[in-house]
Design goal:
21% strand; five-stranded antiparallel β-sheet; 26% helix; twelve-stranded mixed β-sheet; alpha+beta; disordered C terminus; globular
Amino acid sequence: LQFLNTSLQAKLKTMLSHHLFSKCFLLLCLSWKSHAGKFQFSDTHGDFMVLQREPAAAAVYGHLHVSPASNITVLVTVTNNDSGFSYSVDAAVNTAKKQSSFKALLHPSPAGGSYTIDAKCLSKTDASSVEYGCCFADCSKSTVKISNVTFGDVWYCGGQSNMALSLGYSFEKDSSREAILRGQYDNIRIHGVEGNMNIKQPWSTAKQAVEDDKLFDYSSTCWYFGESLVDELAAAHGDSRDKDLPIGLIHTSRGGTMIEEWVDKKTMNSCHDVCIVNGVTPGIQYKELVKPYIDMSIKGWVWYQGENNSANDCILGSSARKSGYACLQLALIESWRAAWSAIPGTTDPLAPFGIVALPESGSLGHRENIGTMRLAQTGGYGVLPNAKMPNTFLVQSYDLDDPYLKMFDSCWTSGCCYPNNVDYSLVMYGGHNLQCTDETSGKQLSCDDCATRCSSVCKSLSATKVYMGLFHPRSKKGIGSRLAQGAVSTSYAHYRDNSVKPGEMEYTMAATGPTLAGCSLIVGKKTSSAVLTILFNQTLLGNDAVVIQEYDTLNRLIPSKLEILIDPDKFCMQVHRKTKKCIDDGSGHEYQIENELGSFRISDNLNAAWLSVPIKVGSSPFEVVADVSDFLNKTSGVPHVYAVRYMWKGSCCDGRQELNVTRDDYCPLSSCPIMGQSSSLPANPFIAKIINGRCQCIPPMDCSADPSDYEASLKGKGSGKYQKLFFFINGCMIFISIIFLCISWHMRPSEHLEYNSSGQEVNSLI
C-alpha cells in the first residue's frame, strides 16, 4: 500500500473490505506498514536508565525495520547535560536479519552525570546522507532519543516466583517506601518486564516508582539487593568515592519456570539428565527474557530459582558427572557470561554472579532432597566461589524462611484467622466456631487456645499479605542484604581495602558462612569416648570465626542440626518423590541393595538413621566438636558413625520441644546454630561420608582436610588473626604469671633471727 498513491489506496481498501480474508490481508499490510516505519531504541532502554560505568564500554541499541538492501547508517550522539560536552559514534547496523537492528558502543564513562543520547538514521547516497533512510514514507522519527541517562553499575535479576515476589508481600515494604520518600535511595533506578507476577516497569527512579504507586509491584529480592548494596557501599567507604554510585536494577523473573527454560539449546545439550516436563518449553525464557539484554553491558547477575526443578523430581546430579541441575547451574553461568562479554571491553567475562540457595519451603513439599538441591545450586561444590565457578557468591536462606511457616496450616488453613484482615478478637467473640491444630501433637485446640497460639500469626498475615502460600517467604529483606554483602565482598573488595584493585578479591570480610574443610573421628585410648571434630575453611572465613548460637536452652530446645548416620546402608543423596526409591547413592546410581521391599533401597525411615548430636566450639575458632561416645561399640570400641551432615533438611526450629502447646510461637530469623561471628552468615549445609575416621565428600566437593594436621601446622607457624591473637594472649598470660610469681616471692612472709636482751634467738615474721 505504501507504494500506491492516495486514490489507489482508497479504492483497494474499499475493494478488500468486502471479504473476510481480504480484511485480514488488509490488516496485515497496514500493520506491516506501521511497524516497518518504526525506528526506536530497544524496549530495554528508556529515560532515566542506568548504563554500565567504566571501565566497561556501555552499549545502546535498537530496531530499524528496513529492507535488507537498505544502505543506511545510524549516528549516536551522547551529550552531557551538565557540561554540554558531546561526542558521536557510528552504530553497527545489521540489515541481514528479518528485524534489522543497530548497536553503538559508547566511550567508557565514569559513574554519575546526566546525559541525553540521540540516535539519527541516515540514508547513504553517492552525494550525501539524508534522514529518511530508516522510515520509508514516514520520516517523523528519523531521530530518537533517551534522556536523563546516568552511568553506574547495572545488575540483572532473574529466576522464578521467589525472585518475582512483589515488594508488597514483604515485611519491610513500608520501611523501604519511607526511606525512598526521605531521599535515601535516590541513586537506585529500576526496570522490569511484564510477567505472570509483575507489571511492566519502564526505567524510573525509585521515587518515581513510589509516586506512580508501582514500587510495591517490583521484585522484592531485586529491590532489597539494590537497597542493601547502597547501604553496604556507604558503610564501606563513608563519604569517599562512589558513595552515591548509581545502581540500575533489571528484573526479568517469571514464576513457575525451570532452569531448562533459561538456557539456550546448546547449553542444555551440554548436560545429561535434564528435566523436560509437560508445559515446559526449553529455552523459552532465554529467548524472551535473556537475549534482549545480552547487548547491554552490565555489572553482574543475581539468580533465585530452583523450586520447580525440586518439585518435579528432576535429577539434581553433579557438575563432575555433567548431570542434572548441578551441571545446568554451572553451564548457565558460563553461557551467560560468554554471551554478555562476546564483544571485548563490554561486560566482564568473569562478571560476578550471585545465587540464592533455597530455604525449606523452596522444596515445595519435597523436604528429603532440599539439601542436595542446595548442593546442586553450587554445581556440587557446596560453596561459592569454587574452582569451576569463580567470582560467584552464595546466599543461604534456610534460616530466612517465613517465621510462621510451621504455623500457617494449623492457624490459617484451619480457619483460625477467618475472616481475613479482621481483628481477631472481633472474630473470636463474634460466635465463629474457630479451631486450630497444634503441629507438634496434632491435637485440635479449643477456641481460646487457638486464639492464644495463633494471635501473632493472624496479625502477621493481616499486616503483610501472602502470595499463594508461605512457599513464598515474606522475609526477603535478609536475602537481599546477604546478596549485597556477597556482592561487596566479591566485586567491590577495593572499597574495603584501598590496596586491593577493582575486580580483585581479598577475604578481609567473609563472603560466605563457615564451610566444611574436613573432619576427624577420634576414639579415646584409655576411656570409652569418641569425638567428631568438624573443621571449617579458614581461607573462606578470613578474619571471621565460628560461633554456635544457643539451641538447647529452655527458650529454644531444638536439636543442633548436626547429625550423624548410624546405618551405612541408608546414605542417600536423592529420593524419588513418587516411588520413594533412592535414585542417587552419591555416585549417580540407584540403590542396588536387596531387601524385602524389592531390588532398590526404599527411602522409608531413611531419616531415622540420622541422629542429632550436641556440639560446641573446638580448640580453635575454626572448629566445632561433637561428643559421639554414645555410639561406640562396647565390644570392639569402634564408633557406629558412618556419615555426618549439617542443616541438610528442615528449618532452624525443626524438632523444637514445645513447653506448652498453646504457646504463641514462631521460628526466629537467622537462628540456626553454626554461624560466622562477624559476618552473621550461617554455615553452608554439608554432607560427607566418614571413612577411616576422615570425611569424604561426594565429588566435586572436597572435604579432605585433616583437623589434626591443620592444628599441627598452626602450632608450627601460626595462621590467621584469631590464632595469632590466641598465641599473643597466651604469651601475655605466661609473662604476667611470671611477674606475679616474682612479686609474690619478693613479698612473701619471711622469717629472720633477732636476739633479745639476754642474747637468746627470737623468731620474727616479716
